[in-house]
Every structure is written in C-alpha cells, then in structure tokens.
Amino acid sequence: MTIDKSLAELERVTARLEQEDLPLEEALELFEAGLTLAAAVKSQLDEAKVRVDQVIEKTKDAFSLEPFDLP
Amino acid sequence: MLDDRVYTVSELNAAARRLLEGEFPSVWVRGEIAEGTLAPSGHFYFTLKDDDCEISAVRFRGRAPLAGAVALVPGTVVLAEGKLTVYEPRGRYQFVASRIQPVGAGALQAAFEELKRRLQAEGLFAPEHKVPLPRFPRRIGVITSPSGAAVRDIVSVLARRWPLAHVLLFPSSVQGETAPGELVGAVDRAVRYARSEGGIDLVIIGRGGGSAEDLAAFNDERLARAVFACPIPVVSAVGHEVDVTILDGVADVRAPTPSAAAELAAPSRDDLAADLVRLAGRMHRTVVAAVRTRAARFSSRLRGYLFRIPQRRIETLEQRLDAAVSDLYRRTGEGLRRRADRRARCADLLRLSDPRRPLERGYSLTFIRGSDRPLRAAADARPGEAIETRLATGRLTSRIEEVTPE
Known about the structure:
The complex is a heterodimer. By secondary structure, chain A is α+β, with helices and mostly antiparallel strands. In chain A, 55% of the residues lie in helices and 21% in strands. Chain A is built from 2 helices and 2 strands. In chain A, strand 1 (51-59) and strand 2 form a beta hairpin. Chain A is elongated and about 60 Å long. Chain B has 4 domains: 9-104, CATH 2.40.50.140; 125-267, 3-Layer(aba) Sandwich (Rossmann fold); 270-352; 357-399, no CATH class. Helices cover 41% and strands 21% of the residues of chain B. Chain B has 11 helices and 13 strands. In chain B, the strands form 3 sheets. Chain B has a 5-stranded mixed beta barrel. Chain B has a 5-stranded parallel β-sheet with strand order 7-6-8-9-10. Chain B has a 3-stranded antiparallel β-sheet with strand order 11-12-13, with no helix packed on it. In chain B, helix 3 (149-161) links the parallel strand 6 and strand 7. In chain B, helix 8 packs antiparallel against helix 9. Strand 1 of chain A pairs parallel with strand 7 (166-171) of chain B, so a sheet runs across the interface.
C-alpha cells in the first residue's frame, strides 16, 4: 500500500475507534489493524533510500531510466 | 589649501569622505560591470570600468530595486546613479549605486516588463491557477543541468528528509542561447513521461547559485507557457536570484534555492514518524478507556438487576467478569506482543511511548520510600527522609540532607 493510502486508512481507523459505543470486539480488531498499519508505514520510512535516475528518451515517448551519479 | 594641523588616518579618511560626498551627492556614471559578486548579505559588490580606468562600486540590498530581472553580469554596460564615498576602514573610495540601468539592454528591460504585464493580464500568475503540492510525493522530477550543484543539493536534502523520493532528472542546460528551448523540451518530456509511465508528483525547475547570473532562460515566454500548461505541480528554484523571474511568477510554488525547493516539496520523515507514535498512543488510550467503561457499566448493571441473587452468587459473577476483563487486557497485550514479535518496528513504536525511556538517557525517578508516586517538588520531601532513586538499571536508596524548595 502507498504511504498516503496507509495514512488515510490509519486516520480512518483512529476516527472509527474513537466513536462512542463501538462493540468491544470491533474496537480491538481496529486497534490491531491500526498498529499493523502504523508499523508498516514506519518500516517503509526506515528502509527507504532515495533513488536518482536520469530520464532518457530513446525515441519519441519511449523512455528509459539510467542511474544518475551525482556530480 | 594650507593646513598646519596633523591629521590621524581616521580623521583624514573622514574628511575625504565628507569632501567626496559633498561634491558628488548624486551623479550618473556609465561603465561596464566587471567582477560582480552578490554577497550573502544581499549587497552586490562590483567594479565599473571603461577602457582605461575602473572604480569599485556597491549596490546595497534593498536600497536599489533593480527594475525587472536584469542580471548584473560582467560585461553588461550600465548607467548607474549614486554618490561617491570613502570606505573609511580601508581608505578606499567607492561608488554607491542607488539605481542601475543596463544601457542598450533598455529595450530588453522593456520587453521583460511588457512580457510580465501581458502574462499577468492573461492570468498566468493568478493564485487560482496554483496547484497545491502533494503531501507525500514519491516521484520528483528535477529539470536542471546534470553537471550543476542544483541536483546535488536537492538530492542531499531529500536523502535526509524524505528518502522515499525517487528523483527523475530531466537534463537541460540552464544558461546560454539554447537553454530556453531545452528547458521547454524537458518540461514537455516530463509531462509525457508522467503520462506514459505512471505519473510524476511534482517537478522542480531551477539552477544553483553562482555569482551574478544570467537569468534570461527563466524569463522566457515559451518556458512560462509550458510551465503554466504543465499538469504536474511545479516548484521554481532559481538560486540566488537578484530579482524575481517570470518562472517564479508562473510556478505553483516559488523557492529561493534548489535546497529550499526540496524542503518545500517533501515532508520530513521524522515529523511523520512522530505523528505515527502520537496516533498509536491515541488508539491505545481509546481502547483502554473503552474496556474500562464497559467493565464498569456491566458491573453496575449486575448489581442493579441481580439484587435478589445471593451475595455469594454475585461474587462469583463478579469474579467471572473480572476474569473476562483481565482476559481482554491480556489478549490486547498478547496481540501487541505477537505483532511486536513479528515486526520489530512495532516494538520500536511502543517503546517510544514507554516512560522508562528517559531513564536510558540518564534521567531518573525519585520516590519517598514506601510511596509509589514519583517526587516532583523538593517541598514534598523532608530532611532525614529515605528516598529511592530509580535509574535505567537498578535503584539507589539515600537519605535527604537538605531540602531547597526554590
């Protein structure tokens, strides 16, 4: 899942969780789902490494990427 | 003039200054700019020369708005208005310009103003056409020279701040005759790349700093129109500009340098991680509160409805309820542990909200012996009392010698 979707989902889960009179079972499930999402986003943040590619257009609309070494 | 008095150097320089400023409070001088340097302070130091002579000159920041976006490039012949003065600490006399106009470039200047007015009238600079930048960009297009400092600056900011970024470099020259056409071509390529390869979240267009620069490419009408038509949000990043460029006006967001553009374009990983911890804490508190409320409500209902049932039976029921609640707590806890085992990250997350963490950094908690509430104010303790100090590992027991309640 992309990070925006995960975060939107996480915000939805938190908001739902804060509703009054949610059945307890559902609250616990939401809580677990929420923590799983948070952990997934966190690990994405921790593991990411910036990528730099140069875009080459071989022929019209045919693109390829070449890793770019910084000057 | 005959003068018997002996001057100090300072007095002599001051006198020379008064003399020059009195004699040349406002003059026009015509010359060619040589060795222009835009200092970090915003002051522009330069030399004006003709075929035989030169004079050092300065234009103080803010003092002299440059009409339009004329770059003070070496070689430009200018008409400057200002006064003569002496820079006393060095005993150097200099020209302080209050107004600078390119000679011959007057037509160029007029063309710039005309273009700006025309594009403005057409609405190319209008705020309602500005597109907000996405919160979490993944693919970031960069249009600049592959050999310049701009791309390096942008990447180094992103590496620190938002390593999820994938930088797509669309190379283009940024100065010289061919630059405007190349920049337009790069914008076009970025748009077509986004269309056929699944999107680009935003594009940064710019160049790094140098001394006085040629900004002509960034004042080009074709580039302005290409950026205006570009469906991808554009951040302008023309470094150390003397004045605003047309590109700055038409871009969705204007940044003063390539590094600043990267800062504006990407969120901070650390802020987001802190948000996650806060969100997890909020969820945790909500669930704990929900369990407590329900347990309490159930318990009082039991007392209300079951008053006829023998006390012993109520106690049994209450015991079962207690067991159910603690089972619930245990399962929540177990769920957490299970996930924590599976995902070390999750454990990290929870550890961040652990009150014992500060202890690991060298803080400690102090208790009056026998009390389980940490001491917050010296006034709550008395000399002679035994206190217990909890450290990250182990505890110390000591006796208070003196209390200073502040």
